[in-house]
Inverse folding.
């Protein structure tokens, strides 16, 4: 249990505090804790608000504005700029000449390396990862398609209807290995 101590206050202030506490929180300790937290978080001193409320409000607004500016800069740096660069690179790929489909991979990679500008080098990583992921997805689609073709729908009188996969244990193990490789 928490330790409780007493503080000596004037009756008039105690009555105001009790009335305020009834409206804000279930206990006096929580009310006082919220008040202290508010002053610590905002950096406003109770004396500033008494003698110069406009200055205190201005300081508090400036601090919140500085926080919002920092938050927006962080969002721009981590989310907006990379997204914009990726979109620009996608549109640039559409405007380039269409390359023949039957080219050796080595030649295609060498051509792509030669055409990359220094500012596009950051986007090159994302493009390569996208192509690799697309290749993996296509492989997975093919593998799952071959498995789904071997499913049969079974109606049962004693339980729920279900699908049955009719493959051998070796085929299942091969499928698991292929999925792990992708």
């Amino acid at each position: 249990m928490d330790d409780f101590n007493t503080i000596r206050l004037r009756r008039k202030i105690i009555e105001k505090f009790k009335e305020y506490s009834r409206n804000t929180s279930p206990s006096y300790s929580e009310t006082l804790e919220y008040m202290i937290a508010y002053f610590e978080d905002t950096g406003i001193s109770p004396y500033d608000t008494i003698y110069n409320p406009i200055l205190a409000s201005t300081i508090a607004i400036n601090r919140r504005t500085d926080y919002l500016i920092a938050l927006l800069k962080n969002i721009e740096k981590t989310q907006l700029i990379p997204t914009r660069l990726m979109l620009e690179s996608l549109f640039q790929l559409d405007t380039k000449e269409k390359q023949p489909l039957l080219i050796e991979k080595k030649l295609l990679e060498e051509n792509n390396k030669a055409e990359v500008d220094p500012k596009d080098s950051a986007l090159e990583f994302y493009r390569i990862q996208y192509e690799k992921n697309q290749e993996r997805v296509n492989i997975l689609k093919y593998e799952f398609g071959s498995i789904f073709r071997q499913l049969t729908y079974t109606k049962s009188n004693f339980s729920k209807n279900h699908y049955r996969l009719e493959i051998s244990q070796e085929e299942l193990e091969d499928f698991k290995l292929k999925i792990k490789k992708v």
The chain has seven helices and two strands. Strands lie at 151-154, 162-165. Helices lie at 11-24, 28-42, 46-51, 53-95, 105-115, 121-148, 169-181.
